[in-house]
Amino acid sequence: MSVLIARISELNRAKTIEPSVACSADLFEQDGNGSDVVDDEFGPTDEEDAQNGQKKKEREMPTNEVIAEQLSKIQNNQKIFLKKISDLEKKQKKRKAILNFRQNYWDANDCDENLEIIGENNHIVHYKGDYKGWRSVFAKHQIWLGNNFSDIFYYEISIGKMNDYLISFGFGIIQKTEESHKSVRHNKDTYAYESNGCVWINGERKGSKDEYSYSIGDTVGIGVNSITRQIFFTKNGLRLDFSDFFVPPSFARDHYYPFVTLATFDDKIEANFVPIFMFDLATL
Fold it and tell me: Which residue ranges does the record assign to the B30.2/SPRY domain (predicted)?
């Protein structure tokens, strides 16, 4: 009897345990290797996967603000790059001008007797006479343009001493004459810039501005661009607003010389023919 009661109790305990074991077993499947695999009903569906992927792509796509910022950076970098190219071209142009300029100086054998040429490089002209009167001197070498030389000719003079006289200086370029003792501004084939601010072209007065006058301490210049045939004038490193003056097509083949004219006692100028000027030729 006691054995029967024990057997009944054992069966009752088995019934109590089996439902929970069965529920646990439903959560797993056996794969071919006997491993437990999570049932598909607990993972995302295909539709949910697609939606999640689209949202991720949208999060990764740049906004309009980001695109605009990136475009602005590209444009700025392009401007910097173009500026560097422009600066390099200017430096190369300036280097060419420096290398191909011909050295020059005032010719003591082509100088009025009332003027003296002084200084180590014969670049200074001094009026040693004791009276007023136009007296001129020419440079030793003519202007050379093109071929193995620069396409630009230019030189400057600096005013060292000047008497209280309205038109005390004149300088420029000219086809050489025998009249070095006179003012040569009236000569044909002359391009001159006077201290009263007047410009003379082929012996005729073509322009004048008070602000273009010069005196002690000023540096003025004259130049020719053989490519454009344009003649230009400068004052203290700035180009003057005379843009409609041109030399003839034969200019580069003709014999033009720099000259300077002084008018009163003790006037003094110093020329600079070396291409390190106050005016930047690379700006042409």
Answer: 84-278
> What pLDDT was estimated at residue 10?
64
The reply to whether 222 and 149 lie within a common domain is: yes
Confidence label for 2 from pLDDT (cuts 50, 70 and 90): low
Give strand pairing partners of 198.
208
The answer to whether residue 125 sits within a structural domain is: yes
Q: Is residue 77 one of the residues assigned to a domain?
A: no
* DSSP three-state, residue 230: strand
Average pLDDT, the chain: 79
Report the number of distinct structural domains present in the chain: 2
CATH number for the domain including 155? 2.60.120.920
> Within a 10 A sphere around the Cβ of 31, how many other Cβ atoms?
9
The phi-psi region of residue 276 (left if phi > 0; otherwise alpha if psi is between -120 and 50; otherwise beta) is beta
- 108 and 237 co-located in one domain: yes
Let me know whether 42 and 142 are in one domain. no
6: containing domain: 2-60
| Residue 35 vs residue 182, higher pLDDT | 182
In a domain, 241, yes or no: yes
| Cα–Cα distance, 68 to 202 (Å, whole number) | 59
pTM for the model:
0.65
Closest CA to 184 of 203, 166, 165, 169: 203
159 and 266 within one domain: yes
pLDDT tens for each residue of 66-77: 788 888 889 888
Number of H helices, E strands in the chain: 3, 16
CA dist 86 → 36, 48, 228, 277 (Å) = 73, 57, 20, 21
